[in-house]
Specification:
With about 120 residues, the chain is an all-beta fold. Helices cover about 0% and strands about 45% of the residues. Strands 2, 4, 5, 6, 9, 10 and 11 form a 7-stranded mixed beta sheet that branches. It is globular, with a radius of gyration of 13 Å. The mean pLDDT is about 95.
């Protein structure tokens, strides 16, 4: 099970930190992807973290968003700084669950487990 939290309303230029808690499954991989979906648009990747702690982001959030994990790797964070109105979307985290990834994956089909999403609105 994946549960996102931390969404809300924020003014442009502000910051938010989203959390993704993984529980209830014998995950062997801590490879996590963050995705977002705006109304009327396809779900797109935002960034990901691999099992070695490497991260990767899409160009539009590079330098503004940061993905990290706590020591247990059961919580993954998406720190969003200098947010823009175009960042408004429902944000989802996703986990592959098993296996091992040595490079962040931004492909939706790679992930087997998804959270319910948390809404971010930037005005």
């Amino acid at each position: 099970q994946l549960v996102e939290s931390g969404g809300g309303s924020v003014q442009a230029g502000g910051s938010l930190r989203l959390s993704c808690v993984v529980s209830g499954h014998a995950y062997t991989s801590h490879c996590i992807g963050w995705f977002r979906q705006a109304p009327g648009k396809e779900r797109e990747a935002v960034g990901g973290i691999d099992d070695e702690g490497g991260t990767r982001y899409i160009e539009s959030v590079q330098g503004r968003f940061t993905i990290s994990q706590d020591n247990s790797k059961m919580t993954t964070y998406l720190q969003m700084n200098t947010v823009k109105p175009e960042d408004t979307a429902m944000y989802y985290c996703a986990a592959v669950g098993t296996g091992y990834c040595n490079s962040p994956v931004l492909r939706r089909s790679f992930y087997n487990y998804w959270g319910q999403g948390t809404q971010v609105t930037v005005s």
